[in-house]
Amino acid sequence: MDSLAQLRTRLRAFASARDWEQFHTPKNLAMALGGEAGELVAEMQWLGDTEIDDELSQGKLRQRLSDEAADVLLYLIRLTDVCDIDPVAAAQEKIDRNESRYPQQLSRGNTAKYTQLSSPEEST
């Protein structure tokens, strides 16, 4: 199983077999997604970048992050399914918008939000 569509179908069947559709409202799924994203962040909360790199290379952190990332992905897929959103199409459209919002020549190496970017001609 390697496609989001297959994963969505499997999740839909998983929820249906347990009569969980009644609980899988957009609000509840969004809240669960937020909670799981928090658990993902908590795995690295007090670690420095070097510690994270070391623990990832030793495999200590990788499994915990894998489990939490899977939870985030599963809730996101379930939420987009319930809301009838194609997550891949939505992501592609967002990248398209961001390509115009963040022109390469203005954004390279720059963390400014697109509303704060200006061309060199505008700043003179």
Task: Write structural notes for this entry.
This protein has 124 residues and is an all-alpha fold. It has a single domain, classed as MazG-like (Helix Hairpins, Orthogonal Bundle), CATH 1.10.287. It contains 6 helices and no strands. The protein has helices spanning 4-17, 26-42, 49-58, 62-82, 87-101, 104-107. The longest helix is centred in the middle third of the chain and has 21 residues, at 62-82. It is globular, with a radius of gyration of 19 Å. The model has no long low-confidence stretch (mean pLDDT 93).
Helix content: 55-70%
- Under CATH, the homologous superfamily reads MazG-like
Q: What CATH first level would be assigned?
A: Mainly Alpha
The ordered string of helix (H) and strand (E) elements is HHHHHH
Gap from first CA to last CA:
55 Å
CATH architecture, please? Answer: Orthogonal Bundle
Mean pLDDT: 93
Q: Based on the structure, what is the oligomeric state of the protein chains?
A: single chain
Number of helical elements: 6
Largest sheet: none
Number of domains: 1
- Stated plainly, the CATH topology is called Helix Hairpins
Global Rg: 19 Å
Query: Unreliable segments (pLDDT under 50, ≥5 consecutive)?
Result: none
